[in-house]
Fold this protein.
Amino acid sequence: MNYQEAVQHKKESLKNADESVLKMFHLVIAPANTDESKKFIDDFLENPEKFDDESCKKYSSDGLFEVVSFNKEEEN
């Protein structure tokens, strides 16, 4: 999906998500390309506060995105 479609999909997912799920998982827009998505997520996990929805754009070479969720790291 393109970026605007991904933004809309994320909004709908956040609206429908249970609060406990939101506490346990990151929900982000990432490049659809697997290698680009891995690089984006690795960088995101280093410092999530530096990222917003548009951050994914610089990782994508084809302008295709998906909404992904993954476990939040336990804070020590």
In short: The chain is about 45% helix and 20% strand. Strands lie at 25-31, 65-71.
